[in-house]
Design brief:
Layout (H helix, E strand, L loop, with lengths): L5 H14 L1 H16 L9 H12 L4 H12 L8 E9 L3 E9 L2 H14 L14 E10 L5 H11 L3 E4 L3 E6 L1 H13 L6 E8 L3 E2 L3 H15 L4 E6 L1 E2 L2 H7 L2
Helix pairs in contact: 2-3, 2-4, 6-7, 8-9
């Protein structure tokens, strides 16, 4: 799940990963398989290197990682995976973009569609929601990891578009094409990241201040994320950290 409130979202995603570690392993294995098609050596495949670091960060066993790489390179037979995006609305007009990676698009469409219907919604016309989102590299760094000026110099020189600072830390934004160069520059500078991925970021957000609606949205998103084919769910709700914390109590 990803939306406007990045720090609350990161905490929420970490909690979900801790509770559903096996499912996270499966989803990451799919991403590793896709990345490995461009080469199974992480030293020359920065996308694969980043995914392997992410996998190790949630204690994914090395055997699982190696198997996923070999499936991607063709050393082990595996079903072909297809990337699909679905979009629609949650209650209150909150836009949702659902990224799927599946070996059976008919099954994925039926199951994701069923989740929408259970929540009183349906798929929206292609582009009607996603046009409000922009695909960007998003890298989150805690304040303790680096000084602001030094970090800004590193990431801008590597090709980042912008760096936003708040009380929690730094949000670095890039074009997808520049993402890996910025990640590599941070690695070389030995600056750890809290979160690092290419995401959909809403251009315009909708503020949610009603606790019941926030809980309903989180429940809907969690029902989507429970699907093995769903890799990521993005939304355009603006939820305060305090309200997010209340919704998770």
């Amino acid at each position: 799940m990803s939306g406007h409130s990045k720090w609350a979202t990161i905490k929420h995603k970490k909690g979900a990963a801790d509770a559903k570690r096996g499912k996270m392993f499966s989803k990451l294995a799919k991403e590793i398989m896709v990345a490995s098609k461009s080469g199974g050596d992480p030293s020359s495949n920065p996308t694969l290197r980043t995914l392997i670091q992410k996998a190790k960060g949630i204690n994914m066993p090395n055997d699982n990682i190696e198997k996923a790489v070999k499936k991607g390179t063709g050393e082990i037979a595996a079903a072909a995976l297809e990337e699909i995006t679905y979009e629609g609305y949650a209650a209150g007009g909150i836009g949702l973009v659902v990224n799927v990676l599946t070996d059976n698009k008919n099954r994925a469409a039926a199951e994701v569609g069923h989740a929408f219907k259970r929540n009183g919604s349906d798929f929206a016309a292609r582009g009607s929601v996603s046009r409000n989102f922009e695909r960007r590299g998003q890298i989150i760094v805690e304040k303790a990891a680096s000084g602001e000026d030094a970090l800004m110099e590193i990431v801008l020189e590597a090709g980042a578009d912008d760096m936003v600072t708040d009380e929690n830390g730094y949000e670095i934004l890039t074009q997808p094409s520049a993402y890996q160069a910025v990640v590599t520059a941070l690695e070389n500078a030995q600056i750890p990241t809290v979160s690092s991925e290419v995401v959909y970021i809403p251009a315009v957000t909708k503020e949610l201040t009603d606790l019941g609606k926030v809980k309903s949205l989180l429940k809907f998103i969690e029902s989507l994320e429970d699907n093995d084919d769903v890799q990521d769910v993005y939304h355009d709700a603006d939820i305060s950290d305090d309200l997010m914390a209340q919704a998770e109590e």
